[in-house]
Amino acid sequence: MKEGLIADSTFYICFLDCIQKPEVLIKIIKNFKANIPQRVFQEICKSKNSHHLLQHKDCLNIFDKPHLNLGEVLRPFVSENELKKGEHEIIVLAYVCSHMGIKFILILDEASKRNLVKNIIPELIDNMTGTLGFLKMCCCKYHIFNNTEIINLIDEIEKSSFRIDKRIIMQIKKEIKENE
């Protein structure tokens, strides 16, 4: 088992709904222990395809205790409305893992949440990436997928409803091709 995976719901929904490739997500979580806070888990469960992920609960560490509201730690930094989003729980979970010496990868796609991390918990920056950056790692660092598989996945993501800047797509593809 490699590093733990701490990802926002956008990451899971990308594979479950946007590109409808749950098998890719399953392959990923079989290589990384997925740590999923309560709100992120609730957001994932709204997916019509969440059953594919839930069939592999042995690869998931779900923090589904109602009294455990990890996002509350960030209350001084965000609005009440923002606290209802799962991204804040993964930021706090990453912070806890960092201070416990647990190896992890933090996947955050939303720029405002990435900036929050950079501004208030900069020690998490080295562990933080986006969905496409993580896919590049799955290919180039962990060899879970080959270059062709990842480029094809990125092409599918680009055509899907998953929102990502075209410049990021081009840069990640370039870096993957340079790694061949």
What are the salient characteristics of this protein?
180 residues, alpha/beta, Rossmann fold, five-stranded parallel sheet, 53% helix
Protein model, in words:
With about 180 residues, the protein is of the alpha/beta class. It has a single domain (about 5-130), classed as Rossmann fold (3-Layer(aba) Sandwich), CATH 3.40.50. It contains ten helices and five strands. The protein has a five-stranded parallel β-sheet. Helix 3 (about 40-45) crosses helix 6 (about 85-100). Residues about 75-80 have low confidence and may be disordered.
Structural class: alpha/beta
- Tertiary shape: globular
Counting structural domains, the number is 1
Can you give the mean pLDDT?
87
Strand order of the largest sheet: 3-2-1-4-5
As a whole number of angstroms, the C-alpha radius of gyration is 16 Å
Straight-line N-to-C gap: 25 Å
Q: What CATH architecture would you give?
A: 3-Layer(aba) Sandwich
Give the SSE string. Answer: EHHEHHEHHEHEHHH
Number of strands: 5
Task: Summarize the main sheet.
Answer: 5 strands, parallel
| Unreliable parts | 74-79
CATH level-1 class: Alpha Beta
Number of helices: 10
Instruction: Bin the strand percentage.
Output: 5-15%
DSSP helix fraction = 40-55%
The CATH topology assignment is Rossmann fold
Concise account of the structure shown:
This protein has one domain: Rossmann fold (3-Layer(aba) Sandwich), CATH 3.40.50.
